[in-house]
């Protein structure tokens, strides 16, 4: 009787090359040889496949379930059918510890999970089905952030940002190095003055980029009654990126954005294959323009941009007047963007093309995280191999 291990090498390679990331568990249980091989090498199209993750919340936000999402943007736009079809397939993901996750972020295939027990955080490699618990002091959900990165030698680290009014800046920074298993306070002074100024975070090439809004208060008529000052809206004066470099363990200078931003306008960060940074600007209270920019060059100390898409949202079919983008991704070949809020995906093209797709499941609310990553065979107790 022929077994999997007896297959010709060329046929075995062909089979392994076709295995999707989401079928790794079934593959590993099929053949002991394949199981061992997959834990030291990337098999199939693992290095090329992309996967989305979604935190699905119960109706009363008491429980969160992690689901994988695959996206398939099909169709060729022409005068006859003229439509793309966005297929969204979801599957609940099982993490070995069966824990409650309320927030998740990623860096190059590893996921950082914040859990109900706010004295620990979890690092998870879904490709190898490995986890690592990291102890930390109790932290606040609302006024703390954890981001994962690595230095030039692929030594992984975690940056923790906490609101702390005992610090001169109002913020405290700590770093955890995987090879030392200790938290250490960092003596850094980035241009991030208040917790409320930090609006979005994304990991790219091992480093972390923060979108920062600095705001002042001012009025056109200085003779207005001072008692009314507290009712005035803040005027946004500057927006910029800050990069935390995990090699130098320091923040870089302000990185300019290709647009200005005022009150009522939002900016969302994303990435292209963790190689280029994406910015989505949505002026839904002012200009009604939606712009997407792609970085040509992105380093801790320098950035340059190219405009990918610019549309007038008032000309888009079924696009809401107020739309707060949670996440988005782009299709460079089709020249379209897929922009998500918690319940709806909008496919947007440069020439005014727009199509919406709802994805509410079982009448539950959705918290969406568009996490496109490449699989890695990084042992959580060792070094990373590609």
UniProtKB/TrEMBL annotation:
Limits of the F-box domain: 1-51
Leader sequence segment: none
InterPro entries the UniProt entry points to: A_thaliana_F-box (IPR050233), F-box-assoc_dom_typ1 (IPR006527), F-box-assoc_interact_dom (IPR017451), F-box-like_dom_sf (IPR036047), F-box_dom (IPR001810)
TM helices/strands, residue ranges: none
Organism domain of life: Eukaryota
Matches recorded under PANTHER family: JACALIN-RELATED LECTIN 37-RELATED (PTHR47993:SF395), OS09G0372900 PROTEIN-RELATED (PTHR47993)
Protein name: F-box protein
